[in-house]
Amino acid sequence: MERHTVEPRPDWQRTVEEQGLVYPLTRHPDGSLRPYWDESAYYSFSLPEVEALEEVVEELHAMSLAAAAHIVGKDRFADLGVTDPRLAGLIAESWRRRDELPSIYGRFDLRYDGTGPAKMLEYNADTPTSLVEAASPQWFWMEERFPGADQWNSLHERLVDAWRRQAHLLPPGPVHFAHSDGDELGEDLMTVAYLRETAQQAGLETEALSVEQIGWDRLSGRFVDDRLRFLRSCFKLYPWEWLTTDRFGPHVLDTLDNGGGTGTTCWIEPAWKMLLSNKALLAILWELYPGHPNLLPAYLDGPRELATTTGWVAKPLLGREGEGVTLHEAGTELPVRDGEPLCYQGLAPLPDFDGNRVVLGAWVVGDEAAGLGIRESAGPVTDEYARFLPHVIL
Length: 394
Description:
Oligomer: single chain
Structural class: alpha+beta
């Protein structure tokens, strides 16, 4: 793994926008616009290195599924902050019927610098983004800059295949693809549009709408779209913790299709993905696989030995884009908690390449490793100001 600087292509912004990346710039707190898509540098990997990372990702995915089974089997929903017995029961039923429910993709965030084992930082298996740039613009960048080279990137083909293989699990009628109108950058819109395109290429009938356009028909007791058609199946880039707690939350639970012919709306990703996108998963993994080379120590009741050894990172169980994440060095005083449940994970500072902190986003489609996206940040936490850099296998 190496970082290389390079001159960006002429008119790069127009190029990537035409390839679906309509958010190539990020507005920073000082009002300046700076590249989000950053091709002033790129990362290179060897083929054996990528093959080893693929094995790590698939092992971590299998371990995460085993942890989900443990949570359900031992009724440990309270550790995830799920205290509503009805919601816990629906998640458990979704897990037990997972073979009857369509599930498409997820993204591991990994700490890796090319010299030691990759370490799992978290698993976003519900609403992961940075998909468009990983699947499309960086592939075309490679073909233009490194013709004949390769890339860890089979995302498009695997996504199309995932829809095709699971088409029989979908109810009759179109699959609706929903994003939120609250997305000002266009990232959610384009992520959903891209996934809709892969479903269409798999031969599925699709419709697009925003979450805010989804309505409730009191007479039939069903969700409807903006043309009053029943919402039989819906891919939503909208976190489950929002879906079940906003004002339509009770209707979501009442009509949830968990397979077996029950319910009227099949949501994608399914409810059992809540077991994997919760940071409590990190602590349960460490409990089940203590000392595993690809895990960091993690706990739910405090930093334990991390307070005097490596230091720790405090993560909200449902935080996104680095929100609420705090770093603490060994020997520092424990902060006063405000009651919000946290996961305490061993501090493993992100690798520093020429002053840039890098995290690998390793994609899983179905149960297989499918591609890589790389984000860099100036600070120790990967947040909404991170940059996306392409990569190549040399």
